[in-house]
Design a protein that fits this description.
With 183 residues, this protein is mostly beta strands. The chain is built from 1 helix and 12 strands.
């Protein structure tokens, strides 16, 4: 008689993502260190090598960082890849062979502004301070604030030279922001 150990596949019991209320969308503004993270608990999560959010043919890949015991993990997604998505996406688990399995969990996504970069001409001219924001869905922004790294305070700004809606220079890619205060 030969006994063969059957490898467990990952199973999720609980999924918790930032900013979600009951059935609300993931809040990508809660990204930390360049990633939107979700916490999961379950079984054999150390066997999961990746995750995919899927809605029809639309797919967003993510990373898995399992705890040593395999009973919990952190899922990481690039917020730029989530910014344009809308609707309910199922969460698939990917094993080491590349096989995907539906976890039975899903998340809700909505279009949200995402600032990828802030371009500055160097030192801001206090008579006409201007920055260029690059990202996605910037037309959803109502205001911009600059916060000093050294605790010098917050500076309010105006979008697109005083209008309350930015006009992207390239569709969905960048919009100028002009500050109304500078020190």
């Amino acid at each position: 008689m030969h006994i063969q150990e059957v490898a467990k596949t990952g199973k999720i019991g609980n999924l918790d993502c930032p900013g979600t209320l009951v059935s609300g969308p993931i809040d990508i503004s809660q990204a930390k260190d360049g990633a939107v993270t979700c916490s999961v608990t379950g079984e054999a999560l150390d066997k999961v090598k990746g995750v995919v959010l899927e809605k029809g043919t639309d797919r967003v890949s993510g990373k898995v960082k399992p705890a040593k015991d395999g009973n919990s993990a952190t899922l990481e997604f690039d917020p730029e890849n989530l910014a344009d998505k809308e609707g309910t996406y199922s969460l698939d688990l990917v094993d080491s062979s590349g096989t995907e399995a539906d976890s039975g969990e899903s998340v809700s996504l909505s279009k949200q502004p995402f600032i990828k970069d802030v371009k500055s001409p160097g030192t801001l001219d206090t008579s006409n301070p201007a920055l260029t924001l690059e990202g996605k869905n910037l037309g959803q922004l109502n205001s911009v604030s600059l916060v000093s790294d050294n605790g010098g305070g917050e500076f309010a700004g105006k979008l697109d030279a005083g209008t309350d809606k930015p006009k992207p220079a390239a569709p969905g890619k960048s919009a100028p922001a002009r500050g109304n205060q500078a020190r």
